[in-house]
Amino acid sequence: MRVPSLLRRSALVALALPASLCQATDVVTLSDGSVYQYGDKSDAPYIAQWTNGAWAPIALPAKLLPAKGSFEALGSDPQGNLYLTYEDASNEKKKAYGALARVDGAWSRLGALPKNWETGGHITARSPREVYLDVRLIKERSRLVAKWDGATFTELALPAGAEGVEGLRVHDGMVVLLVDGKGPSGTYRDGSIVYHLEGGGAWAPMGPPCEGSADLLLTVAPGVLWRLGSVAEYWDGMAWQQGFTFPNSSLDGYRIARACSGAEGDLYVVLTDKDNDDHLARATRTRGLSWYKGNEQTSKFEYGLYDPFLDADGALRLTMSGQALRFTKADFSFGSDGYPEKDEMARAVHLAYKATVPTFNSFSRQLVHLDSVMSATAAKADVQAYKDKAQEAMVWCTATMDQLQALNVGPKRNRLHDALLEFLQLFHDQLYLNYRASEALLDGQLDEAQMQRWSRSYTAMQIAFNNLKQEEADYPRRNGLE
Fold first, then answer.
1. Closest Cα partner for 194 from 223, 173, 216, 172?
2. Longest alpha-carbon distance in the chain
C-alpha cells in the first residue's frame, strides 16, 4: 500500500481503506428536525443519528437484523416513532426484504413481506397502525404502495399511468404521493403528478401535473410542501405555485437533484448542470435563488455534493468524499469583499494570491514525483527526500501565512484573504500528516485512525482549494482590478 499523493485527484479513490470504513448511506431529516443516516457499512445494515456534530450509530437487536444487507428507506410518524425497510442479502441468489419499527423506544419487525415484494426507497406513517411503503413487484415489474395496519399488509395500486414512486410522505395529516409515468396526455411529458390518499383508499390528484418533471417531494417549515426537479413549486393548500426560477432548459439548464429545508422556511438546493456537475444555492419564495458565493461559476463543485441537512445551529451540512461539510447563510450572500473599487488593499490581496498559487503548484508537482519514487523503491533515502520536501513546503506555508497576516485588511473582512489563509493552513496540516504517514506506512504502523485523520484533512483541503478558486473567479471584476 502506498502513501497517498498529496493532490492527486484520484487519491481518495485509490486509497485502499479498511473494510470497516466502507459504507454506502443516505440521509433523511424527520419532521421533528432529527437527522438520520442509513444504509450499509461493511455490507451490514447501518443506522446513525446526527448528534453534537457527529454520527452516533444506533444499535438494534441482533435478532432483527440480517447478517448481510442494508437499510433501504427510513421514515417516521407524527409521534416520533421510526420505521425502516431493509434488504437481506445473506443469500445472494435469493434476497429477502422486510420492515422494522421503533415504537416508544422498542424495536420490532413489521409482518413478513410477501416473497414477491421488494422494498423501494420510501416509507412514512401516521401511526404504528398506519404505515405506508412503496414496493416493487418482482415478477410483474411494477410498483404499488403497501399499507400496514398493525396486523396485515394491504396493497394500494398506483394511480392510472403511474410507473414509479418519487416521493411518499405524510403532510398536514394527508398521505401524499409523487409519481412519474404517463400523464393525462398519455405521454411522459406530463407524468409528474402529486396525489393524496382519500378515505376509501383511492388516490386523488393535488392539482395539475408539473410543467416539467419532479423527482423530490419535500416538506418545509411552516408546513409547506415542495415538488422539485426541473421545477420548483410549492403547495399553498389550494394549488401549486412557482416558488423560484432557475435556468431549467432541457438542453443546457439545471435540475434540482437534492434539497433540504433551511431554518426560516427557505431551501438549500443542489442543482446538476448538463455536464452533471453540482452547484449549490439557497432559495426562498420571496428572494428567489442565491448562488453559493454569488454566481453560477462560484457555486460549482468539482466533486459531488450529497445528503444535505440542517444542523442544530442552523448551518447547512453536505456530504462530499464521505465528510460532512459545513456552510452558513453568509456563504450565499451577494456581498462584496467589503472594499470599494480600486482599493489598494484589495489589489495587494490579489497579488498575494497570484504569487502563492504557482509556488503551491510547484511544491505539489515535486511532492507527487517524490511520492511515486518513494512508493516504487521503499528506500529510506527516498523517504527522506520526500520528508525534506514536505518540510520545505511547510516552512514556505508558515512564511506565506505570516506575510498575509501582515497585510492590514481590518477592520473589514476580505473573503479572498480569509480563503487563502484557510487553504494554506490546511495545506500545512496535510503536509504534516503526509510527513508522518510516510514513516508509519513503511514501518507497517499506519492504522485506521491515522487513515481517517488523513481522509478528513484531505477532504477539508480539497474544499478549501475549491473555495479559494471560487473566491478568485470574479474577484478582479468585483474589486475594479480588471
1. 216
2. 78
State the Cα–Cα distance between residues 124 and 134, nearest whole angstrom: 9
Q: CA 83 to CA 20: how far, in whole Å?
A: 25
Angstrom distance (rounded) from CA 454 to CA 1? 15
Contacts for 471-474: CB closer than 8 Å, 24+ residues apart:
471/293, 471/298, 471/415, 471/416, 471/419, 472/350, 472/353, 472/416, 473/295, 473/297, 473/298, 474/294, 474/295, 474/297, 474/298
pTM beyond 0.85, yes or no: no
Q: What is the CATH number of domain 18-332?
A: 2.130.10.10
Match 494570491 to its residue by C-alpha cell.
353
Residue boundaries of the structural domains of the chain: 18-332, 344-478
Could you give the C-alpha distances from 267 to 23, 232, 264, in angstroms and in order? 28, 10, 9
CA distance 36 to 46: 10
CA of 153: how far to CAs of 117, 123, 136, 457, in Å?
11, 14, 14, 48
- Torsions phi, psi for 31 (to 5 deg): -65, -25
387 grid coordinates: 520528508
| pLDDT tens sequence across 110-167 | 988 998 999 999 999 999 999 999 999 998 889 999 999 999 999 999 999 999 999 9
SS3 state of residue 320: strand
Do 42 and 448 touch, CB atoms closer than 8 A?
A: no
The span from the CA of 97 to the CA of 479, in Å, is 59
